[in-house]
Amino acid sequence: ALGYHKVVKENRNLYNIVQDLKGNIRVYCRIRPPLNTSVQNIIDFIGSDGSLVVIDPLKPQKDGKKLFQFNRVFGPTSTQDEVFRDTQPLIRSVMDGYNVCIFAYGQTGSGKTHTMRTSSEFVIWLLMIFSNSLPKERILSSSLTMDTLEIRSCVSDDSLVLPDATLREVKSTIDVINLMKLGEVNRAVGSTAINIRSSRSHSVLTVHVQGEDVTGGNILRSCLHLVDLAGSERVDKSEVSGDGLKEAQYINKSLSCLGDVITALAQKNSHIPYRNSKLTLLLQNSLGGNAKTLMFAHVSPEGDSFGETMGTLKFAQRVSTVELGAARANKESTEVLELKAQIESLKRALAYKE
Ligand code: ADP
Ligand code: MG
User: Fold this and answer.
1) 253 CB near ligand 1 (under 6 Å)
2) Does residue 111 have its Cβ closer than 6 Å to ligand 1?
3) pTM exceeds 0.80
4) pLDDT level of residue 162 (50, 70, 90 thresholds)
5) Residues in domain Kinesin motor (predicted)?
6) Helix ranges, the chain (H)
7) Counting atoms of ligand 1 from 1, which one is nearest the CA of 110?
8) Looking at this predicted complex, what is its ipTM?
9) How far is CA 300 from CA 29, 82, 332, 343, in A?
10) Which ligand 1 atom sits closest to the C-alpha of 74?
């Protein structure tokens, strides 16, 4: 039996409970530093409270200023360490049996891959928690798929099959780094222009976590999806043709399906169209139900990106209105009872404070 729960037990749950009470889709916005300083910067204001003001370069006066509000905004000078620090608690909840999905959205060149590079640190960090909490060898396995996404639905058990995915067990930091490298190489296969390839494909790194709660004997199973989405920019049909066009349309379709799913969730529709694309099918368990989701909305600060930046921010704003209700850990009812008890005591503590 695998058991890793005892170390996690002490400081876990406070974050989870607070998060559960608030609902579970978070939106962080990250602004890339300007690459071309001679172009006008359209980011007018970044508040520490997650607010952000963008100026329309054609209407720089008051009516051209748009305010957005997110859970957190990382400005152009933000570091990878800051991103890592603010995402760690969420990643940690994977250890408590929650499914977690982090996805990077934005136009090509806005910094998605840059942010998702922290992924290897997350996996290594999870691995460290595992190896520190228990000297067992076989605890964490990781599945990595890059290149264009190929997902088939397996009707029998409603699970998803990824024909191109390689499921590898990782036992050390070196394993993780090698696997990440393999993913980057796979993503570039078939194209000499790596940037074009990566802007038209989604890359998904999934970490499967399995363990047994030493105290209750409950089996925990959870997964962490780290998704570097294809560029969200509109594809001009005149620029691509043939296979390239098909690929671009497919990617556009999957991103618009993601938008449809988000809208349906935001409107609390009874039917959520997960089945319309492979991407949403893959992320189904992370977008609805019992998961915790974090979207990184990436924007470029240059004036010539104004249209795409507004598109990204509006989409992100829509995502932030989605309320999914409480996230649930994938485990047995004793744990749920314990959580409920803790929520009650937390509510009491809050009431006492007021
Ligand atoms: P995307 O994956 O969205 O197409 P990239 O992550 O490849 O964009 O970023 C485009 C370029 O900008 C890269 O050269 C990257 O190193 C740089 N970049 C992106 N975000 C940042 C950042 N926060 N700080 C410094 N450089 C960045
Ligand atoms: Mg990229």
Assistant:
1) no
2) yes
3) no
4) low
5) 24-322
6) 5-11, 14-22, 80-92, 112-116, 118-133, 173-188, 194-199, 242-266, 278-287, 306-320, 333-353
7) 3
8) 0.99
9) 11, 19, 44, 40
10) 23
